[in-house]
Design a protein that fits this description.
The chain has about 260 residues and is an alpha+beta fold. The chain folds into 2 domains: about 10-115 and about 230-255, PSTPO5379-like (3-Layer(aba) Sandwich); about 130-230, 2-Layer Sandwich (PSTPO5379-like fold), CATH 3.30.2040.10. The chain has 6 helices and 11 strands. Strand 3 (about 85-90) and strand 4 (about 95-100) form a beta hairpin. The chain starts with 7 loop residues before the first helix and ends with a strand.
Length: about 260
């Protein structure tokens, strides 16, 4: 982690210069972090409706005008350079993961910034509830589920969830704390038995890093802003660009 990682602008500038390429969990405490989805303008209206009809996995922080790279939530930022990592999908297939998408930029690109559960993590830890992936410097574990999103046009597919082990005695508290952050997915969508939502092996996440679950803990699942990546694959979207899992855009908005 870079020495300027407590500042939202510092993390963005470190990513822009190539000095920071790690997951942003634990960075810039108190600032809202955002997942990112970029689609051509021809698909933008349907994706906007998709987000509105699926607010748990896709809580909108901001939608930029076609071609715009500087969001209102972070003046001076550049969407094409200021994330620690990007993924490029064509026809539903991941074709590149890279540090900068300036060379790929198109005038018709519409950027969606979608809330991220990293935004409530500092509040959870301040409440005395440890988060193992933060303590271990890992990316949060994320899984595809059997929970279907409400389809809109070509956009359809499963919800992705993030998972954090929580001691049984702390579950009610973590639900209460995360519920204060509707732009960060709010309350969990599932607690306990992972097979009930189609997850068969917690040791093999679809995205991110697995973490140990101790005997006095239960897995708690939140809707996740990686959902658009799963939807892009399921829908075979001709072209879209997303953040790399766990590598968020950090806004100047306070949570």
């Amino acid at each position: 982690m870079q020495p300027d990682s407590n500042s939202s602008a510092g993390v963005r500038l470190a990513a822009r210069s190539g000095r920071f390429s790690e997951p942003t969990a634990g960075c810039a405490p108190g600032f809202i972090q955002a997942n990112m989805m970029i689609v051509p303008q021809a698909q933008a209206f349907d994706f906007l409706l998709f987000c509105q009809r699926n607010p748990k996995p896709c809580p909108l922080v901001e939608v930029l005008a076609a071609g715009a790279r500087e969001p209102a939530c972070a003046p001076g930022a550049n969407i094409a350079t200021d994330l620690p990592g990007y993924r490029v999908y064509r026809d539903g297939a991941l074709v590149h993961e890279q540090a900068d998408i300036s060379a790929l930029w198109q005038a018709d690109f519409v950027t969606f910034l979608i809330g991220c559960s990293f935004s409530f993590e500092s509040a959870v830890m301040q409440a005395g509830i440890p988060l193992r992936h933060v303590d271990q410097g890992r990316n949060v574990a994320m899984y595809r589920t059997n929970l279907a999103c409400v389809p809109v046009g070509i956009f359809q597919g499963p919800m992705v969830v993030s998972m954090r082990p929580v001691k049984s005695r702390d579950v009610a508290r973590v639900v209460e704390v995360s519920g204060r952050f509707p732009l960060a997915h709010g309350t969990p969508v599932h607690i306990g038995n992972p097979e009930a939502i189609g997850i068969h092996d917690l040791a093999r996440p679809d995205y991110g890093d697995a973490v140990e679950i101790l005997p006095d803990e239960v897995p708690v699942f939140w809707a996740c802003g990686v959902t658009p990546q799963a939807v892009a694959q399921a829908s075979r979207l001709p072209l879209c660009i997303t953040h790399a899992p766990g590598k968020m855009f950090i806004t100047d908005l306070l949570g």
